[in-house]
Amino acid sequence: MVLTSTSELDLGLDPNKDSTYDRTAEIKAFDETKLGVKGLLDSGVTKIPRMFHSSNLDLTHTSETDSNLSVPLINLKDIGKNSSLRVQAVAQIQIACKEWGFFQVVNHGIGVEVLDEMICGIRRFHEQDADVRKTFYTRDNNKKVRYFSNGSLYRDPFANWRDTIAFFQTPDPPNPEEIPAVCRDIVIEYSKKIRTLGHTIFQLFSEALGLHPSYLNELASADGQFILCHYYPPCPEPELTFGTSKHTDTSFMTILLQDQMGGLQVLHENQWVDVHPVHGSLVVNIGDLLQLITNDMFISVYHRVLSRHIGPRISVASFFKNSSPQGAAEVVGPIKELLSEENPAIYRDTTLKEVMAHYFEKGLDGNYSLQPFRL
Ligand code: OGA
Ligand code: NI
Predict the structure, then answer these.
(1) Which atom of ligand 1 is the closest one to the Cα of 232?
(2) CA 287, CA 225: separation in Å to the nearest integer?
(3) CA 374 to CA 349: how far, in whole Å?
(4) What's the CA-to-centroid distance between 353 and ligand 2, angstroms?
(5) Edge to edge, what strands does the sheet with 313-320 contain?
């Protein structure tokens, strides 16, 4: 996709140019329906409301799409048993984390039936009776189960065509009764399996960095898991908005399950590259915190989700980061063992809390989130 002149898309879409448009009121009314984008669609809209229009040129006009490139696909089969296969996988992971910040894994040990059921469970939640769904809608940070549309709705320059249910699982999981009945069992099972896989991948990352295999698993700030389960309804005017705006993740690592619809893209060498769905695989990406502590040896890259006429699309992103008071207070900075005279620290020591505060304050605005921490 090549976007043309910037002024075409911008025409009439800048809220500041129209004094009669009350964006805050529009956002508030939408939020108060407690039914998200799915609710809008169910009400029969054929045009997307203006609050979803992406007028920010930086976000829409980054570059071209290149279909010849593809995100590395890494086979984890028998890496626990066969040391030469493990060495091979670690070498592939090292290259993928340095050059792409993204890869897909197969034979990761989680059965395809578990992945499929997780997607079905999340779909059941978003498609259940509106009166039941509504009762989960909240922006209360104290709740461990939250259903909402657009996490930073009130801060972002424009809203995305996406709804989400979030589960804050580790270190302090919700009571099972707090999890919606339509997806309760699978959410619990899936979270456990992803946590175990996360530990395996952190081991492989530690090895790829030349550290002790348990290094990353011993960081309190990385030992946390929250899960965002996204629902991207079909969009009547996909060229005017995004499923998810261009952003990096604030985690150490994210493990993503996507269905077969497609639409996820990563920015690689200034080209948007599709992350093609591979049934049974999981997508792994590096977050800002791992880029920071590896002193840029591993990179956290921009990614986005396009909106489509077809849908819904379902995805489940599991973020590894401990935002409990204990995890958030931990100092994070470039790992000393990785530094040398030739490779001096390029970030200052900070805390997870500070990194997160900056990330949430800026919202999904498309700006680079590690900038304030660079030396
Ligand atoms: C995210 C994300 C991608 C997707 O939640 O941070 O990038 O495919 N999701 O939904
Ligand atoms: Ni992301």
Answers:
(1) 10
(2) 13
(3) 10
(4) 19
(5) 73-75, 102-106, 282-286, 253-258, 313-320, 225-232, 163-170, 145-148
Nearest to 248 by CA among 115, 65, 370, 372: 370
The confidence score (pLDDT) of residue 10 equals 40
For the residues 6-30, what does the mean pLDDT come to?
68
**Does residue 82 surpass a pLDDT of 90?**
yes
Cα–Cα distance between 256 and 285 in angstroms, integer?
Answer: 8
Q: What is the mean pLDDT of residues 219-223?
A: 93
Longest dimension (CA), the chain: 67
Q: Which of 228, 231, 259, 266 to mutate to test the pocket of ligand 1 (most atoms within 8 A of CB)?
A: 228
Q: Is the bond preceding residue 171 a cis peptide, omega within 30 degrees? A: yes
Contact, 46 vs 236, CB < 8 A? yes
Tell me the CB-side half-sphere exposure of residue 70, using CA atoms within 13 A.
Answer: 9
Distance CA 299, CA 343 (A): 16
Lookup result for tokens 């448009």: 21
Top-level CATH class of 7-373? mainly beta
Atom of ligand 1 nearest to the CA of 275: 8
Band of residue 367 on the pLDDT scale cut at 50, 70, 90: low
H helix or E strand, kind and range, residue 281? none
Phi, psi of 241 (to 5 degrees): -150, 180
- H-only helix segments in 299-368: 325-329, 352-362
**Per-residue pLDDT at 57 exceeds 90:** no
Share of the chain above pLDDT 90, in %: 82
Spell out the domain ranges in the chain. 7-373
Q: What is the pLDDT of residue 68?
A: 81
Query: pLDDT confidence of 365, banded at 50, 70, 90?
Result: low
